[in-house]
Design brief:
Elements: H1 3-8, E1 25-29, H2 30-42, H3 46-61, E2 76-80, H4 81-92, H5 97-109, H6 112-122
């Protein structure tokens, strides 16, 4: 099997990764989430991006993950789980890295002003914990 075939294996769900409670709301640490989005935009390999998104989806299910937060509301970003998983699926199902980056940009443009303000205020405190 060639490398391209292995990359497509990540398109299929794995038990627990795509599980969605219809009402579940996710609370993430904003600095870490912003850092993760920045890292996603810097990935130049579609296979690597798919792996990264797959692992991010796993992290959404792990309540003990460092990404999850119940803390300070000013440091938290909130998502409907079904919506977030749908957005991540669209990114990982992209056929080209350019299209995946386009979706990443498009999806975050809605919150770009808020993220930009946050990044400017907290750039020196952002750390990536993948």
């Amino acid at each position: 099997m060639d490398q391209k075939s292995f990359g497509n294996m990540l398109l299929f769900g794995e038990e627990g990764v795509d599980s969605v409670d219809s009402d579940e709301i996710l609370h993430f640490r904003k600095p870490l989430f912003v850092e993760i989005l920045s890292h996603c935009r810097s990935i130049e390999s579609l296979v690597e991006l798919r792996n990264f998104v797959f692992n991010l989806k796993r992290r959404t299910n792990d309540v003990s993950d460092a990404l999850r937060s119940d803390g300070n509301p000013d440091e938290v970003v909130t998502f409907d789980k079904a919506y977030l998983l749908s957005e991540l699926d669209q990114i990982s199902e992209s056929l080209t890295i350019e299209r995946a980056h386009y979706y990443l940009t498009l999806r975050t443009e809605r919150n770009r002003f808020e993220f930009d303000k946050f990044l400017i205020r907290n750039l020196d405190r952002c750390q990536i914990d993948l």
